[in-house]
Design brief:
The complex is a heterotrimer of chains A (about 600), B (about 400) and C (about 150). Chain A is about 35% helix and about 15% strand. With about 600 residues, chain A is of the alpha/beta class. Among the domains of chain A are: about 10-80, Ubiquitin-like (UB roll); about 95-215, Alpha-Beta Plaits; about 280-335 and about 420-585, Fe-only Hydrogenase (Larger Subunit), Chain L, domain 3 (3-Layer(aba) Sandwich). A 5-stranded mixed beta sheet of chain A has the order 2-1-5-3-4, sandwiched between helices. Chain A has a 4-stranded parallel beta sheet with strand order 11-10-13-14, with helices on both faces. Chain A is globular. Chain B folds into 3 domains: about 10-225, NADH-ubiquinone oxidoreductase 51kDa subunit (Rossmann fold); about 235-305, Ubiquitin-like (UB roll) (Roll), CATH 3.10.20; about 310-395, NADH-ubiquinone oxidoreductase 51kDa subunit, iron-sulphur binding domain (de novo design (two linked rop proteins), Up-down Bundle). Helices cover about 45% and strands about 15% of the residues of chain B. In chain B, the strands form 2 sheets. Chain B has a 5-stranded mixed beta sheet. A 4-stranded parallel beta sheet of chain B has the order 3-2-1-4, sandwiched between helices. The radius of gyration of chain B is 21 Å and the shape is globular. The mean pLDDT of chain B is about 95. Chain C has 7 helices and 4 strands, in the order ααααβααβββα. A 4-stranded mixed beta sheet of chain C has the order 2-1-3-4, with helices on one face. In chain C, α1 (about 1-15) runs parallel beside α3 and α6 (about 90-100) packs parallel to α7. The longest helix of chain C is centred in the N-terminal third of the chain and has 14 residues, at about 1-15. The model of chain C has no long low-confidence stretch (mean pLDDT about 95). Classes of the chains: A alpha/beta (about 600), B alpha/beta (about 400), C alpha+beta (about 150). Chains in contact: A-B, A-C, B-C. The interface between B and C is large, with 50 and 36 residues.
């Protein structure tokens, strides 16, 4: 960026010299040398806290040890990462953390994927000296999505920083002082009664088992074992590029077809795809956008623009709390998960001849908020609970491991039909900008009758991890029906992570939003970085998962939602027309105003 | 050397009169006009030559703090008077503010001139809320005077709400900014990024008064007091089993023995120097221990204990204080304090062997190097000095 | 409720919506209402465009920000070692007897709350206590009980 060359400084770490740019932390300088300094409160997504003190190092001439995550290296610094003083203090810190942590690891949901456990293992804290201080707290299971167990909390505040910095939700806070200091909510209320969006970023940023998803694995097993039930499973777009991490593969591996086989092996009766309803969402939402544009541009009617996507249930709950005066900007389309549910229990049930009462719909989602969404009172369009159970990627990983399925040896399989076929447009829903890209591919064609003029249909400006992305698309050569849109510059924006959503909404609130259409996803990176995804999730991993999704898109037979033959079929067969009567009944919804604080 | 209380008082008063800088009655506001015409470099020179170190307890050279802030380029800077005197056994700032607020404000004005700060704040602990009306009146008069002198400097008052940790300067800033009083990572230091991210000098009440006196007297007698390492005088808060209690300004550098001879009740077995976060000096070390940065540093708290007192009880009182007043953010301090409290209780009640005390001492040593701020780092001071000198009293 | 709303708005108007004014605002509401209620914290958060959890986290940090209904007059007895050495316990007992409550409690008529405080800065004149902002030093059980008369 800047012309000025960055100033370089030299330090020695454990006797080895290294040259790094000025303002590099000691932790990062050590990383360059391949020296691993353990951390707990540190997370690359979040601002520096420096409160756990695990990453302390000795700096020659300094009276105290320095938190390497929080201390910039300075020229000539002599750093020791593993001196006797460091090791003694670090062991003490780990022991102290263990003394306030309920350490029944064998009964812990995060057993085997816990940073504290790993650290205790590394330092062999096998003879705890200190007095056990942990409290037998009540576990908060008030929320259908997230559970909180204070007795396992090590007060690193990663969850609070995720909730505040990444998400701008601030449902969690640090409260009280000294020995009583704890991570809590407003007035120490249960999670279900505060502004929590259920996004689960606290869960993916928690190093221990203090914050986890509500786990419905046993319920799903029960449904599978029940011979009277026809268990349908749907898989969200982002699952196929992340489930591999749960079964020992490297991040960024696309395993769609093996995933299908694994689900069959688990005993699901129908293996279907949320990607299908993602395509359906595009048809409905694209038409809704055109409908609103028509009203605004042609009829000069007062209509809520920009229209904002409604696929992300964390985002929905956020806007319901924070910007409840602007709910009319939301698309009325249900999310793909909730479009799938009622279609499964009406259209699909009829097709396969199953009584909907005997059908159990299970979703595999990268998301914890989907658990809440499925439980919303209005989500009973089929007359029954549309989606019965929502499992995260992590929970599915658990089921696959429990079933002893070796992912590396699985043959490939195909989704069942109907509600199983999808396009690349549906696939890219999983990454930030994906819904926008999919919508533009369809909307542009609806308006002009031509393919959107981007090389290989890849609309690059809406991709990537920058917080708020913008794009402008000039509409030229419209079909007769949309002549009033000729020459209109369609302005779109994409935000991911609720802190970015907040920026976009503040602009909208002030009346200065220049956009026609906005995509918002609650989680950083979109669903590939969702609160139900494998832990850890970092920007490097997000990028790998996103790349895999775009790879999936490019390899698909169809790349545009309106080309999906099953979509065409379902409209002919059942829905008749976008925004039609049936759609309104099953596929659209309304929103509720919630308390801001 | 056994003296009657009257003899002790006479000696103490003579000493005080000789030193007499903090409570000397002068028209500091009237003299400010003259001071404000001095070159900044001259002022800094006076402070530097005085050898003044911060009187809050940490002992950072005042000259250097001002210089560092003065060197920062910024559109805004602040001077803050740290009047969050919360160290158990310290009460001198209260009296200084009661009697010499003008001199405190004058010190802030001088600092503001040197570093280029248009705004100053006095952060007063909530326990001293009864001083608010008095200070507000004095502050208004001061602001008027600044106005009359044509000086761009305004003072404001902020109150704390019962949190000892806010005496730590970065915690104080957090508190002033409307957050929990949790210490920040350093660097950056407040002189670079302080209140609202701007360069900020935070000085203790007493330090500011010394600055006023040093600059007004062009150095003056301050530097004739004390030792090479601990220049000048200091205001002491004397309490506990003392014949003479109260607030006294004394030269730095006397031994604990000399101090005990003047203030003690003839049966002093230990002196806690520097409050709950300070050091306990047992009788056998009175003669060799100098009060000052070369021996036991102190923010002024001197608590005397005679042979009727239980050192276990005293230690517990300090540790419970720390456990409550820790902000709780960093592991060593939050959990360490609890372990020390529970640990000595367990030993006392025979739930843990006496050797567990050695484990606790090791823990305290780790807390000293591992804690994020001065609070956690200093818990080891009382713990180790009391445990090592009064081991039997802790165990049995 | 109407009354409490006014206090919050008054305080926010007096100090301004900037984050750095949060403590003075909490202090003022706490002083006028005697404690900070759930609704007041929520309202302060809304007025200042902060999250209520954030405000709660700040308020709970400071021991003078009482979050439960307290008596009209709050007695805080210093529990530091020097006050203890001068007989703090006998003062507590005398006040407990006189008020008919235990440490930490509030009288049924909501006139007094009896609390402990860390060092209040009167170690040379212990035992010492605060009633609201007023200081009482060199207490004896009799003097302590007598001090209550001013607030009866």
């Amino acid at each position: 960026m800047s012309e000025n060359k960055q100033k370089m400084i030299s330090v020695t770490i454990d006797g080895t010299p290294v040259t790094v740019p000025e303002n590099t932390t000691i932790l990062d300088a050590a990383k360059l040398l391949g020296v691993h300094i353990p951390t707990l409160c540190h997370h690359e997504d979040l601002c520096v806290a420096g409160n756990c003190r695990v990453c302390m190092v000795e700096v020659k001439g300094s009276r105290t040890l320095q938190a390497s995550c929080a201390t910039p290296a300075s020229d000539g610094m002599e750093i020791y990462t593993n001196s006797r003083l460091v090791r003694t203090a670090r062991k003490h810190v780990i022991e102290l953390l263990l003394s306030e942590h309920r350490g029944d690891c064998l009964r812990c949901y995060r057993n085997g994927n816990c940073e504290l456990q790993a650290l205790a293992n590394e330092y062999r804290i096998d003879q705890g000296v200190f007095i056990d201080l942990h409290k037998e707290d009540q576990v908060d299971i008030s929320s259908p999505a997230i559970q909180k167990d204070d007795s396992k909390c090590i007060r690193c505040q990663r969850c609070v920083r995720a909730c505040t910095e990444l998400q701008s939700v601030s449902a969690l806070c640090v409260a009280h002082k000294g020995a009583d200091m704890r991570i809590t909510t407003f007035w120490d209320k249960a999670l279900a009664y505060v502004v929590c969006t259920n996004c689960g970023q606290c869960v993916t940023h928690c190093p221990t088992g203090a914050l986890t998803e509500r786990n419905y694995v046993e319920d799903v097993w029960d449904a599978i074992y029940d011979p009277t039930k026809h268990v349908v499973v749907q898989t969200a777009p982002a699952i196929r590029v992340s489930i591999g991490e749960e079964v020992g593969l490297e991040p960024g591996q696309r395993v769609t077809k093996r995933l299908v086989t694994a689900l069959r092996r688990l005993g699901f009766d129908s293996v279907l795809d949320t990607d299908f309803t993602a395509d359906l969402t595009i048809i409905e939402e694209g038409n809704e956008l055109l409908h609103r544009l028509t009203k605004a541009v042609r009829d000069k009617e007062d209509v809520a623009l920009p229209m904002i996507t409604s696929c992300s249930p964390g985002w929905i709950k956020y806007i319901e709390h924070e910007f409840s005066n602007h709910l009319d900007h939301l698309s009325t389309c249900k999310s793909p998960q909730q479009m799938f549910g009622p279609l499964a229990k009406t259209y699909y049930a009829e097709k396969i001849g199953v009584d909907p009462k005997d059908m159990v719909v299970v979703s595999i989602m990268p998301c914890t908020a989907k658990k809440f969404e499925a439980a919303r009172p209005e989500m009973m369009a089929s007359g029954l609970r549309d989606v019965d159970y929502v499992l995260t990627t992590r929970e599915l990983g658990l089921m696959i491991r429990q079933a002893g399925i070796d992912f590396t040896k699985l043959e490939e399989g195909d989704y069942d039909s109907i509600l199983g076929k999808s396009t690349g447009a549906g696939a890219i829903f999983g990454a930030t900008g994906g819904v926008m890209e999919a919508a533009l591919r369809t909307a542009y064609e609806l308006i002009t009758g031509r393919e959107i003029p981007f090389e290989n249909l890849n609309i690059k400006p809406v991709r990537g991890l920058s917080g708020v992305k913008e794009a402008t698309l000039k509409i030229e050569g419209t079909l007769e029906k949309y002549k009033f849109l000729e020459g209109v510059e369609l302005k779109v924006a994409i935000g991911h992570g609720l802190a970015n959503a907040r920026k976009i909404m503040k602009q909208l609130e002030s009346g200065e939003s220049p956009y026609h259409f906005i995509e918002i996803m609650a989680c950083p990176g979109g669903c590939i970085g969702g609160g139900g995804q494998p832990i850890p999730t970092t920007d490097e991993i997000r990028t790998k998962r996103a790349n895999a999704i775009y790879d999936e898109d490019e390899k698909m037979q169809y790349r545009k939602s309106h080309d999906n033959p099953e979509i065409i079929e379902i409209y002919e067969d059942f829905l008749k027309e976008p925004l039609g009567h049936k759609s309104h009944e099953l596929l659209h919804t309304s929103y509720v105003k919630r308390e801001k604080n | 050397m056994v003296m009657t209380r009257e003899e002790k008082l006479a000696r103490i008063n003579a000493h005080q009169e000789r030193v007499n800088l903090i409570f000397e009655k002068i028209d500091s506001l009237g003299l400010l006009g003259k001071v404000m015409k001095l070159e900044n470099s001259k002022i800094l020179e006076y402070i530097k030559e005085s050898g003044l170190k911060g009187r809050g307890g940490a002992g950072f050279p005042t000259y250097l703090k001002w210089k560092l802030a003065a060197d920062q380029k910024s559109d805004m800077k602040y001077v803050i008077c740290n009047a969050d005197e919360g160290e158990p056994g310290t009460f001198k700032d209260r009296k200084i503010l009661e009697e010499q607020a003008d001199k405190v404000f004058a010190g802030m004005a001088i600092c503001a001139k040197v570093i280029g700060a248009p705004e100053g704040y006095v952060y007063l602990r909530g326990e001293y809320n009864y001083l608010v009306p008095l200070l507000t009146t004095k502050m208004n008069a001061f602001n008027d005077e600044m106005n009359k002198l044509g000086l761009n400097f305004t003072l404001k008052l902020r109150s704390g709400s019962g949190a000892y940790i806010c005496g730590e300067e970065t915690a104080l800033i957090e508190s002033m900014e409307g957050y929990r009083g949790e210490a920040r990572n350093k660097p950056p230091y407040p002189v670079e990024k302080g209140y609202l991210g701007k360069p900020t000098v935070i000085n203790n009440v007493e330090t500011l008064v010394y600055c006023t006196m040093i600059v007004l007297n062009e150095g003056g007698k301050f530097k004739t007091f004390g030792t090479e390492i601990s220049a000048g005088s200091k205001v002491f808060s004397v309490s506990g089993d003392a014949d003479v209690e109260g607030i006294y300004e004394l030269e730095l550098g006397m031994t604990i023995q000399e101090f005990v001879d003047l203030f003690g009740d003839g049966d002093t077995k230990a002196v806690q120097v520097g409050g709950a976060s300070g050091f306990c000096v047992p009788r056998k070390k009175f003669k060799e221990t100098i009060i000052g940065f070369e021996g036991v540093p102190t923010g002024g708290s001197m608590m005397l204990f005679n042979s009727t007192r239980s050192m276990y009880h005293i230690l517990m009182n300090y540790m419970e204080f720390m456990q409550e007043e820790s902000c709780g953010q960093c592991t060593p301090c939050r959990v360490g304090c609890q372990q020390l409290v529970k640990g000595i209780q367990a030993i006392k009640h025979k739930k843990r062997p006496a050797t567990y005390l050695d484990d606790l001492v090791k823990l305290a040593k780790s807390m000293r190097v591992a804690s994020k701020c001065g609070l956690g780092q200093s818990v080891a001071n009382p713990f180790i000095s009391i445990v090592e000198n009064f081991r039997e009293e802790i165990i049995y | 409720m109407q009354g409490s709303e006014n206090i919050v708005r008054k305080a926010v108007r007096k100090y301004g919506k900037g984050r750095e004014n949060l403590l003075p605002i909490l202090q003022m509401v706490r002083k006028e209402h005697n404690y900070l209620s759930e609704d007041q914290l929520r309202e302060i958060a809304t007025e200042m465009d902060l999250s209520s959890a954030d405000v709660y986290g700040v308020a709970t940090f400071y021991s003078f920000m009482d979050m439960q209904p307290k008596g009209k007059n709050i007695i805080r007895i210093c529990k530091t070692i020097t006050c203890f050495m001068k007989g703090k316990d006998s003062i507590v007992s005398a006040l407990e007897d006189a008020l008919g409550i235990k440490m930490g409690e509030t009288t049924p008529d909501r006139k007094f709350s009896l609390l402990e405080a860390n060092c209040i800065g009167w170690c040379h004149k212990g035992p010492a206590m605060l009633i609201n902002d007023k200081v009482y030093t060199e207490l004896t059980p009799e003097k302590a009980v007598q001090a209550l008369d001013e607030y009866m």
